[in-house]
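Closing statement on the zinc ion sub-project.
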Amino acid sequence: MSLLKTTMVTTLLLTGYSTYSHANTPPELSLQNATWKFNKQSAYALQHDDYCGGTQGSIDTIVVPALLARGLTASFGVIAKTCWAPLWEKAREHVNAGFTLFNHSMRHTPAYKPTWEKSNFKVIWDNKRDIADANQRIKNKTGFTPTFMALPYDIGSDESYAYVREHSELIAMRAPVENNGKWSGNLGINHKDFSNPYKLKVELFHNWSPYWKLGKNKRLPAFLQETIEREGFGIQYFHGVADESYYSVAKSEYLHFLDKLKKASDENLVWVADASEIVNYRFAREYCTLVLQSRSQKMANFSGQGSLTSTKKCNKSNGQLTAMADIEDNIRKIEQGGQAIKFTQVAGKLQFEYETNKGDVALYF
Ligand SMILES: [Zn+2]
């Protein structure tokens, strides 16, 4: 499907001169942050829950090799207390291979009484233990600091929500399907400018998915397709693959879906990344702007030197952003902080990745 170019970029970053060389001023130059990294059309995060709670076998033997073979990534929700030494070692290996881990509590108990449980159900939950201590344990055992929280069963409470928000390491969370014992629903696609990273909508591989009725091999690509069409952010989560875990997905259906996902990624329709990385990008692109500082009057050899606006919010969302510009003149070189950075310029469309915390960006013509 086609896409209006104007929707691919969000913030106007550089505004400047409106006249051309006759008036001794260079042509207008503006740099904009792409909505999603690499100027892809949408963003997508894959998650597998219950690592160390039943899914670890298929994650080790099916999921990780299949994703690596396609150059894709996913994140695994660790139940911190139920891992034992060899599983921690495997988790470390996955992190070293580029995968991420997220916090899925200490023992996978609900943070509030689920509505489907009887009135005498005992809630065994402690915010400090199940959020803070679980994060610390995953960090101690793997060296990876989780930045994303998924409450077991996506069952939340106002207290657990507040606790996660106040935890300095956790920057995002899945929205609750039930909060304080009331159905709130959490299925859907996140708008590209979503405002609350602690209430992220999801798609779960489960028969309550709105795509489920499409049947095998169609329901998974349907959610992906809708995410792409909306230019939004989709989080799809599974449990295991071809195992005894909760709503385990068949291996053939999973691999078929990964092939579709890889194709969409290769065609720049979707940026597949860790959910926290996507959240970071979304806020960095809003808070960090390249502002024109100085510019040569010599058209043939001027430098359009930008400087990152130093705002607290930008500093908090350090990361890599994709910059875009419409520039007719050929760019010879781009530097950030004095270091050359890669760029592409095709039919006047300039594109490059820059770091939000590595200093000025200079364009050389
Ligand atoms: Zn779970």
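The chain has two domains: 5-39+280-364, 43-269. With this model delivered, the sub-project is considered complete and its resources will be redirected to Aim 3.
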